[in-house]
Write a sequence for this structure.
């Protein structure tokens, strides 16, 4: 199959470059550079160079509060855009806030509280221009089910359990602390460990779970399971079909769901009319409330909101558990909820930043989101983050800066102070329709298809997380998502690829013979490329894999009666680093090859690798003349050199 | 600093190769290949092809019991070597066994038991020819301190606690199960996750800890701390200096220590005389026992062995905890001890296999070691593995096969049945000297120096594990070793290297401009190489890093008034794989570049990467003509093409 020819190396003009060990770095420098690239790869202090002390102070302040930067060039024209955007998102956010609070098993008003304080804090500290801050469905659900595992949200008499609310604030506080710490200590890359595929599956599963939960409100079922898996929910639904459903509720729920879906369709089809979809939920709430109010349908069994506490956020610092067993529980829940909220928020920020080509500092975003949740936890808010649906509307409505969040916040304030009593007759069914229509957007079938097409293992991760959430629980789904993500990393570092290289005819280029079938092997020389850094986690595998390439090759050469393999050239270009275990494996490889009478030759080791080859004296062991700057150099030298002497 | 020239591309003959998407694989094939490379990379079933059923059965048996393979060609000449080797190692193993049992807080006889059954099992199932099986110092210490955390080894009256011994067998059983399972399910690569550097540090720390513990026996101290950290031990030692030390004990201990050290020195200096160092411990025991026996020094406060149970291993199946809380504790301890024993055993096996150039199947070794520990746990043995000192002696004494283990096992049997009562007067001090002289070899200062020279971060890992063990405890040291190893893997996958490439003068080769200062940049084209697979864990970083390269380059180009950058070429050779997060990042990169009026060009993507670029339609997005088989091709085409049109 594979051809093996002695090539005419004279055909290509060629200069041979020697590989010199790079100048030595001292430990301090090496550590400094390593730390810098790991934690300060964006060089946050670049702008501080050669500045006076007051300027530096101002730069620091400006770093913490970006509003000081863009605020100086803020104009009335920009404010016009922000005002319209803010008013548009508030019409979307008020009904969502009320509905999402119930997902977290909290009273309605906490949703509105959470759309008042955190957006204000973010407006001063955040660097994304398009994000809209507030409670979101998935985090509300996650927080609700984690909290519910610890404390029952309701007392036995059906009144809200005060301890549950306190634990919610505690978790929110620690979610904020987690987010702040990740950003401050520049550990933001940790959230990258949740793979895109796992997130798509997790979000989709959470959306299905949330939608299923809404069947309770939509069908007017009174006794409903507390579990979130699809089987328990379906049992609850079917079990009550004969005497638990309420037709008036179903009528209200379905008609407003159809109305909102049509509005959404219009908003999507004609981008000019995006506001139709944005105000549909608010119109639904107003109309439904009005209808129920005048028909007294609540007397017919239509469940209504009944009561929303009036007034602005009360302080809640004293409600956070600062001691006791709930401190630890709140901490654990907070870390998980904070990480997920951050993942969602940062992803949304990045999407718009790349769409509009501005730079988003991930670590700064985390500090901003952490701060808003810390402040929020002290002012009766629960975990908030960037909302995808509201951010998209914010963007389409033409917002220019975070001022749109301030506008939204102010209108929510007015709502809290004046309008909340009017929500008394709002039927739960219309809130359920609002939630269902909001979360269907999270089921990203297009992304799943793309996953299927481009990476089957990623697709499995996605499906695993999805089924974990809908058939078991949000926590299990999340666990599966994280586990699959980590398993993939472990596989990546233990089983790197290797390839046998051949020469592309008429060039000096050596390529994988599987990918380029016209590449020809070189007589007496086996060229193998290792496609990864060589670390303790894979050094043994790589050694054994290389020896296996050699054994196969020797068998083939023998069966074709070709000259025996004298040189094993390892193309090191992709080997970005090597550690002591790697060097150790190479030493063993060298010994084995010597037994087999084969010379070990290295081509194009990177600077760090070269340095380690020299400092460990491996370069001297195999002979410095066995290290070349390219495969072409190596082949040229080896095949023109006199018959190889025995090693 | 960096030169920027327009190169004369005509100077090198050049054919341009197109990059075609590789033929599509179906999911099943893809999964099969992935699984094969991960778990069956050594193609264990290769020899089974085209064989009849009985032959296959025999091959399976031969796979499980390699003795059926080499046994057929076993000769008397080989046996002679094995006999001598077996007799030599037994003289080393008997005193060590007795001493090591005390490290695990077990009665003396359990050490001898453990050198009888497990070596026999290994002889039939193991594939290493030079390894000598038995209890080893580090695993004994680790097991002892883990068990001690759960149950006190002694009753209040000073008699051995039966529950402790039972837990030891339970842990041994699960150590064996762990080892067997790792091998059977081909998960052997998991032990590669403990990095070489961490092991060097951990072993060194354990050796120091063990040696310090021996001060009790060596100085004849009666009341000694139970903690293993250096500070507690030193306090115990100094606290008893005035009235707790026994000069006769010290005399015995020090003189035999000097004797064994001299013997070791001779054995090392003249390799012919290796047997001097091998039999020195046994001679010490005999002489010391004889002296104490006739002088009745035990009456003067010299602590002696007093009693070793006579007879062969009693069965212990019924002593293993099959239920209750100790089942779980035994399991946990077993997993840890089993992994460490395996790491040590496999490393020793590999060392000799590479020295003598034979193949060692890691997974088979694990199955063999697992089996010997499972059988051992049922016959009153505790965790055993390959011992470095005894394996080295075995090798030097000229062993040929595992028959030397059988010889050793037989002599241990004779010892158990006939000689144990003679050990009555053996002073503990001489056992302490034997342990100290055995473990100093584990402190590998040369390896630590090599680590310092070749990789500073590896050195830190080594030192961290070392200090963790000696200043805190074996478990903490182990935890540090594992944590550092994992942190390194995480760093590796989150912060891959990138490099700016230039053309080596007179060639078509593009190399890192930092490593090759004479490489010249190409006008209007920025070439960046990404040195890693692009996965969710690093895709964001890579995108941002590439944009940073571009920003720096644009600044420099502007300051030198050179033509602006029109093309960004990404050299993809080292990018061995890309997942959907990676594709996603590339899409964002493409969008951002379009805003900046720069074309994105890819060079030499690997087959899997090419396939994903096509299946995700990213190739069509950037244009298939923007993907080249090499940087040289890309540069040649881009710089000869007419002025780039606006993207």
């Amino acid at each position: 199959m594979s051809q093996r020819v002695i090539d005419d190396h004279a055909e290509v003009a060629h200069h041979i470059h020697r590989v010199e060990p790079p100048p030595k770095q001292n430990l301090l420098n090496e550590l400094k550079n390593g730390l810098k690239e790991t934690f300060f790869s964006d060089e946050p202090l670049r702008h501080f160079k050669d500045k006076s002390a007051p300027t530096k102070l101002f730069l620091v302040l400006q770093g913490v509060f970006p509003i000081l930067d863009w605020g100086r060039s803020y104009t009335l024209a920009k404010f016009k855009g922000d005002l319209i955007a803010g008013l548009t998102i508030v019409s979307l956010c008020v009904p969502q806030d009320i509905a999402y609070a119930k997902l977290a098993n909290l009273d309605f008003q906490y949703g509105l509280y959470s759309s008042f304080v955190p957006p204000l804090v973010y407006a001063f500290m955040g660097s994304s221009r398009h994000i809209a801050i507030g409670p979101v469905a998935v985090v509300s659900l996650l927080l609700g089910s984690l909290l519910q595992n610890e404390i029952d949200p309701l007392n036995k008499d059906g009144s809200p359990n005060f301890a549950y609310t306190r634990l919610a604030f505690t978790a929110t506080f620690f979610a904020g602390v987690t987010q702040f710490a990740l950003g401050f200590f520049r550990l933001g890359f940790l959230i990258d460990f949740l793979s895109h595929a796992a997130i798509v599956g997790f979000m989709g599963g959470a959306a299905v779970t949330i939608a299923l939960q809404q069947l309770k409100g939509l069908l007017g079922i009174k006794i409903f399971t507390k579990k979130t898996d699809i089987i328990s929910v379906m049992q609850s639904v079917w079990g009550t079909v004969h005497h638990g459903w309420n037709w008036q509720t179903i009528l209200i729920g379905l008609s407003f769901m159809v109305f909102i879906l049509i509005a959404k369709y219009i908003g999507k089809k004609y981008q000019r009319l995006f506001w139709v979809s944005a105000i549909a939920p608010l119109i639904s709430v107003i109309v439904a409330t009005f209808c129920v109010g005048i028909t007294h349908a609540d007397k017919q069994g239509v469940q209504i909101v009944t009561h929303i506490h009036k007034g602005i956020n009360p302080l809640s610092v004293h409600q956070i558990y600062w001691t006791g067993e709930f401190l630890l529980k709140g901490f654990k829940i907070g870390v998980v909820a904070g990480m997920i909220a951050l993942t969602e928020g940062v992803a949304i920020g990045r999407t718009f930043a790349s769409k509009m080509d501005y730079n988003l500092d991930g670590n700064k975003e985390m500090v901003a989101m952490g701060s808003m949740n810390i402040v929020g936890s002290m002012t009766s808010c629960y975990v908030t983050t960037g909302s995808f649906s509201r951010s998209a509307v914010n963007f389409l409505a033409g917002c220019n800066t975070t001022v749109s969040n301030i506008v939204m916040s102010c209108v929510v304030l007015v709502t809290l102070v004046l309008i909340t009593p009017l929500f008394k007759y709002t039927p739960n069914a219309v809130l359920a329709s609002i939630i269902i229509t909001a979360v269907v957007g999270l089921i990203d079938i297009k992304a799943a298809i793309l996953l299927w097409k481009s990476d089957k293992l990623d697709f499995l991760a996605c499906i695993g997380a999805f089924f974990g959430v809908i058939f078991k629980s949000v926590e299990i789904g999340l666990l599966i998502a994280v586990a699959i993500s980590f398993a993939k990393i472990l596989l990546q570092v233990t089983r790197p690829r290797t390839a046998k290289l051949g020469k592309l005819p008429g060039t000096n280029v050596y390529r994988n013979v599987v990918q380029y079938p016209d590449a020809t092997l070189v007589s007496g020389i086996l060229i193998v490329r290792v496609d990864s850094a060589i670390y303790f986690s894979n050094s043994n595998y790589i050694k054994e894999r290389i020896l296996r390439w050699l054994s196969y090759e020797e068998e083939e050469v023998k069966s074709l009666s070709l000259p025996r393999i004298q040189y094993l050239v390892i193309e090191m270009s992709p080997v970005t680093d090597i550690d002591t275990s790697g060097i150790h494996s190479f030493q063993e490889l060298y010994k084995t090859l010597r037994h087999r009478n084969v010379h070990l030759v290295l081509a194009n080791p990177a600077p760090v690798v070269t340095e380690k080859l020299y400092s460990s004296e491996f370069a001297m062991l195999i002979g410095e003349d066995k290290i070349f700057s390219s495969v072409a150099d190596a082949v040229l030298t080896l095949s023109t050199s006199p018959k190889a002497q025995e090693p």
Summary: Residues 109 and 308 of chain B are 6 Å apart (CA to CA).
